[in-house]
Prior knowledge:
Elements: E1 2-7, E2 10-12, E3 18-26, E4 32-39, E5 46-52, E6 57-59, E7 67-72, E8 77-82, E9 91-99, E10 114-115, E11 119-123
Parallel strand pairs: 2-11
Antiparallel strand pairs: 1-3, 3-8, 4-5, 4-9, 5-6, 7-8, 9-10, 9-11
Amino acid sequence: HVQLVESGGGMVQAGGTLRLACAGSGTSYSRYCMGWFRQTPGKEREGVASIDSDGITFYADSVKGRFTISEDNAKRTLYLQMNSLKPEDTAMYYCAAGPRMTTIPPLDYRMYRDWGQGTQVTVS
């Protein structure tokens, strides 16, 4: 399993930027998918962005053109650059990792086995 720790959340005004980071440790998957999800109270966890071991990325329509997912394999760190933030981006953001499975869409939470504890993003 992979242990994941998120950082970089905070409070920002609309139009601002934040960069989330997710540090990974432990046994990694040979072919993997890593993603960012977000959740607000009373709502289902929403897939925001993902990247797999081939470097292929996927984004939710709501964040396309504003968010960018990337990874630094040497540091075993996943990033989410968030620009032009909107109040509706307010949520707890989670990092996730799992073995790449072509039968499950990359932004489907069922792809992922390992989850971080989350970092809060608040946009006012």
